[in-house]
Design a protein that fits this description.
By secondary structure, this protein is mainly α. Helices cover 64% and strands 3% of the residues. The model has no long low-confidence stretch (mean pLDDT 83).
């Protein structure tokens, strides 16, 4: 779980590097609790502002907003120390969003339909503009906070069956889609009889739909046959078999 702190290319899957970086952020969780949840409003705001400025400054200092901007985005860093800073600052901003959601009354206004639509439009625009990655991070936090109030038809729509299913399997999609890319050529050849020249490129709409169906199917299988059962098993490991309440022992649910 620490391999990507030094050797990101040695992950079992290309996207697996982030598991190692996220593990580092989880190790810092107690520190973030003290700085962002147990601190005063002013101190927590300062810590969040430092995290945001640090993320923006690193993006600028690395020249990611110039001609060498990668298509994947201004803060697409998977080599240390940038990757650790990227994950740590975004982790801190996410915790600060939770603090605002639970303590600041004004955040409820983010749940209104008009503001939610505006924030969602901003998320979509910044998704298509790699140089605006830092703005994407901020808008995504605002979107999550606004949706959590469930005041709008948009929140109900995004919380319906299909979006919920996609959310459940999203981590499986993230981990599986890159290792499956080299198999795309074999899959297209099997269905169409024509082998594409580059197995990493999706050249037609049909190829894209075909790959999407396969990835969604395998991700669903992965989630329900492995990820969800493992979540239950781990919860049982960290949950005592009995709970003591007012001197009585009752079975834990």
């Amino acid at each position: 779980m620490v391999q990507a702190w030094w050797w990101p290319d040695d992950s079992l899957t290309g996207t697996g590097w982030s598991l190692s970086i996220e593990w580092g952020a989880n190790l810092l969780f107690p520190v973030f609790v003290l700085l962002l949840l147990r601190a005063s409003n002013n101190r927590a705001a300062i810590v969040a502002a430092v995290a945001l400025v640090g993320l923006a400054w690193l993006s600028l200092s690395q020249g990611q907003l110039g001609e060498d901007l990668p298509l994947t985005g201004a803060i697409d860093w998977y080599y240390v120390p940038n990757s650790l800073i990227r994950c740590g600052t975004e982790f801190a901003l996410g915790m600060y969003c939770w603090r605002l959601r639970s303590r600041a009354v004004w955040t409820r206004s983010l749940g209104r339909t008009n503001l939610l639509l505006a924030v969602l439009a901003g998320v979509l625009v910044t998704t298509a503009m790699p140089s605006l990655d830092v703005a994407f991070v901020i808008l995504s936090g605002c979107l999550v906070v606004g949706l959590s109030f469930e005041q709008s038809w948009l929140a109900r729509c995004l919380g319906s069956a299909v979006p919920r299913w996609l959310g459940l399997i999203s981590f499986s999609i993230y981990l599986l889609h890159l290792p499956l890319l080299p198999l795309k050529g074999l899959l297209v050849q099997l269905v169409t009889g024509v082998r594409p020249p580059d197995s990493y490129e999706v050249e037609t709409v049909f190829q894209g739909v075909l790959c999407m169906v396969v990835v969604l199917g395998l991700s669903t299988l992965s989630f329900y046959s492995f990820e969800k059962p493992m979540q239950r098993r781990l919860r049982r490991l960290f949950t005592s078999s009995n709970a003591v309440v007012v001197g009585q022992v009752v079975p834990a649910r």
